[in-house]
Write a structure and sequence with these properties.
2 domains, Diaminopimelate Epimerase, Chain A, domain 1, alpha+beta, single chain, 16-stranded mixed sheet, about 280 residues
Amino acid sequence: MSLPFLKMHGLGNDFVIIDGRISGFLPDEAFCLRVADRHRGVGYDQLIVLGPSQSPEADFYMHMYNADGSKAGACGNATRCVARLLFEETGRSAGVVQTMAGLLKVWREEGDLIAVDFGPPRLDWQEIPLAGVNDTNNLVMSGLAVPPACCVNMGNPHAVFFVPDVEAIDLTAIGPLLEHHALFPERANIEFAQVRGPHEIRMRVWERGTGITQACGSGSCATLVAAVRRGLSARSAAIHLDGGRLNVSWREADKHVILSGPTALSYSGVLSDELLA
């Protein structure tokens, strides 16, 4: 069968989005790999499939897959992209998206920005998860010449490393070693961050199951949380990524992390029978 799709991105963090709410379509690993191929398929950082909501509070369920075919638990930029589709479809300016990470509130902000409430971060070693009892704010990575990590779960596991100059990091070399480190039984998203001021952080990311991406929403949230835990940042900051700027705040009152930024529609198309065969 041919499948219609949308190609969207948040600051270059790109997604193939398929509406499976009526058909019930869900991909297997082989499908994910074929479509993820940037030469013979379409190419994406994550594949998103919309399905029927499993909660009366949510507008739909968002299934997420990495470029290697593995499932993703959370994706802030993808959530903001599908929120835009929801608002265009319904005429509303707020809604709820259901994911593996739970129910995420989304809304439109001034300047055509779209925001998502990730809820409170999870900071215990079992919640990351780590392979054993450890200090999630000061995790020493044995065998690798990197500073201690600050670990945060934002619906998926993150390890944030603060360095003087993120541009000096060979992310292609160190990213996969850290992602697959024995301390992370479910692997981890890897962020290298440089604090430029109380409200300004430069960050680069290696995403679990995908590799280097232009931006990462959940990674931006994890980076701000890590910076606050280390006493390096205020509770709100602009996160400057390879693809542009995201705004993150970690509210004092309810401990929820809020992510805001732009979205873009690149094109619509149809996955051909020849590709899917």
